[in-house]
Fold this protein.
Amino acid sequence: MAAENAARDRAGIQSVEVGFALLEVLARATAPLMLRDLASAADMSAAKAHRYLVSFQRLGMVTQDPANARYALGPMALRLGLAALHQLDPVRLARERAAELAATLGHTVALAVWGNHGPTIVHWQESALARPVTLRLGDVMPLLGSATGQCFAAWLRPRARGAAARALDAMIDAELRRIRALPPDARGELPLTHAEVHALLQRVREQGMARVVGTLLPGVAGFCAPVFDADGRLALGMVALGPVPAFDAQWGGAVERALRAQAQALSAELGWPGAASDAARP
């Protein structure tokens, strides 16, 4: 009996899954679609698609413009989407992935969000194999001297306006003054001018994540990957770090690829539409 129940649960209701293909096509579309185009994209006949669309219209999941007969998502689809977004907790979802990632990599994984004073560590996941790193919950990461800070600066600054932009610029100015005050041999590859900051953050955006090696902590390397919400805003940073001799700090290496995959998967879970296309990055 248990085996039969399990098989029935796995079977589900095929017609629901088939009909969902139409909703998925409408969700990806940038404009309302004609029946033939909608059916073709969902890989079904126009007659079959029309039967599903009639039911979806009754439920408010789909609307049809009487002027041009094109279909679009309806008010119920919007209500469901907003309810799902309201129930999402990015940090809670990320904590689950952080544990998996730390176990896979054998390195420390952390999560950071934007706090009152900058990028702040809010979760710390150490693998049983990880060597201790002297960062802890509540630590605020420097904007230019850490992978976490570079990640936040790279994606927050282009969208910042008004007081938020001024506050972010003030933080960058303060850190530039601190860097310039360091002895030359302690500056490493840290930027010294606003032009160098601009170039650094542009590289971070082009790479899709930030990396530092021995900049924040001597002998420690780290990556920080951005996680985006449904509006394309930076929700949090997912960090992997460890001692240089044991940490693969290469672009395209095991750490970078695993971290990127987890960040993209979490962004998709939070509703970011760019996650699918970004997953195709090398």
Notes: The longest helix spans residues 162-180.
